[in-house]
Structure formats: structure tokens, C-alpha cells
């Protein structure tokens, strides 16, 4: 009979040492995984301290302000303002107590005599700006920072969001009277039933029946600007579930067809509209934008619909074209079978006060040909019958 030699027992201290090593390794592994998960998730609270600090400085007495009301012009810029010379001329003909200027630009960029041709923009950049990506929630983060900064001044009673390629179609007096005559905000807002941008995962925080779409370029009264800045319910859902699909990449070939079937959502085309609808403010809106955009409707095999804004150049920014834009008096919304006739205090008015996207050459033509002329706006301030 063969005897099997037993292995000597492992000392207890070795078992204890091995157990401690295993615990340490597992702890380190879990920490690494947690950090990886944290960084891989969307930033649900991008720049919270900046907005919180700005929100704390907001004057809550602005709705009872009794002095001369101001329009806050809020420029959302990539970096500089390429059309500053045109806006400089616009503000030269305005009364200084009637407007204020705020610019969200790239972090660290300053507006001074070396970066802008108009003194109106000196030092008007936000100091708490963030890096913005097109089609990302950072776009609406930047908008909120602009509105929060402007709300600190109780004299600001109207808030107009503009891109760095926007131009005014009228002089300051006309735009001022037009905005001040209306107690409503101007927010392009309509039912989104075609493109499927609504993510069912948003429910029940954002019900589908409250989902809206519209132009990013809005003009708000003060109470609605406060709703925008105070929101802590709708924005987190947008950060998490409203994301654009990956852009087309020629290197991916046929894979693009599959990628383009992914859920697609552009936050800045839905956020304010949906927020104000959920806040039961939709009846307080003129549901149209004041900023004209000329859209190029094109389609490819990998894009079910590709809409891109046309750029106005020196060649196509002729006075006749600008005149045609100014003569537009209604907008048709096919998803609601709704025609929005443009009125202020029961007075029919042109639909658009601004237009985009304009090149520097186009802006120079507007100035040289005196397209932005004088208009009588006294009738807009008459009370409705």
C-alpha cells in the first residue's frame, strides 16, 4: 500500500497576509472602476458652481422695476464677434440707458481694443464661460449663464439671444419699441412629431405631450428668463438623454447607415420650448422666433433630412432680399397646421427683427447700402383696443 505524503499546513500568518493582499487588490480595482465609470458618464452638472454663484446674485425685484427698462443683448459667440463693426454702428444710434450687452465666448477670451473694433464690447465677456460643443448640452449651459448674468441687473426687462453671425434688420428704436410693447416672450415652439428626437427614457420626468421643438434664438421677458435659470428638473434629463447622433464620417463607409439610425436629439432646439411648456407658460408666448434663418433643405442616402442654414454673402445680401425678409408677416407650422400671424398688441408687424447667418462681406453691404433704416414704431406702443 502506497502512502501519500501530506502537504504541510500553511501557516496562519501566510493566510492572513494573502487575505489582506486580496482585499487591497480588490479595493484598488473597485476604485479604478468607479473612477472610470464616473469619467465615462455624461457630466450631469457641468459648471454647477458658476451658475449657482450667478443665480445667487440675481435681483428678484426686477419684475417690479419702475425705471427705464433695458434690453439685454446676449451674444453666444465661438470666440470673437466678426460682425462687431455692424453692431457697433447699431449701438451708436441707441440710448445707452436702454440696453446692456453680455457675451459668452471661449474661456479666457477677452474683448478689448485688440480683439474688437467696437468699444461697446469692451469687457462684456462672461468670466465664468465654458467650452461649448455644437449639438451638446453645453450649448444650453452657456445660454443659462448668459441669462443669469443679465438677470443681475433689475433694469434688464427683455433678453434677446443672438449668435455671432446675427444682424439687426432695423434700427435700435424700432427693435426697442417692438420688444417693450409686447408682454410676451418670443419663442419658436411647435410639436415635434416627425423626427423622433424625443427619447422615451425621459418619461415620466418629461412627458411626450410636453415635448416641443423650435429655434434656439429666443427673446424672453424677465419672468421667463428666471424660469430658465432656476430650472433644476428638466435640464438633468436633457443632459442625460438628449444627445446628437455621431456625425457622418466617410472613413466608416456603410457603417454610417447604421450610425444614422441611432437616437438623435439637439438640446438647444428643444430645451427652452419644452421647459416653458412644462412650466405652464406656453400660453404666455408668441410662438415664433424674431430671428430669420434661410434654410437649405437637402437630403442624402445617409441623412433622412439634412437642413443647414444658408450663409448670406456680399453677393446675395442685396437690398431686395432684405426687403423680402422684412415683409414676411406670418409663419406656417405644418406639424400643427397652424399659421402664426405676427402681431404686437393686436397690431400686425413684420415677423423678424434679426437675421442670420451673415458673413462680414454681407454685413458690410448692409452698412454701405443703408439697409437698416428709420421706421415709425409709435403705433406699436398703443394699447390694444
UniProtKB/TrEMBL annotation:
InterPro entries to which the protein is assigned, alphabetical: BC10-like, Glyco_trans_14
Pfam families documented for this protein: Branch
Any one Gene Ontology cellular component term annotated for this protein: membrane
Keyword entries, A-Z: Glycoprotein, Glycosyltransferase, Membrane, Transferase
Main subcellular location: membrane
A molecular function (GO) term: glycosyltransferase activity
Membrane topology: Single-pass type II membrane protein
Domain of life: Eukaryota
The UniProt record lists the keyword Glycoprotein: yes
Localisation per UniProt entry: Membrane
Annotated protein name in UniProt: Glycosyltransferase BC10
Source organism per UniProt: Prunus yedoensis var. nudiflora
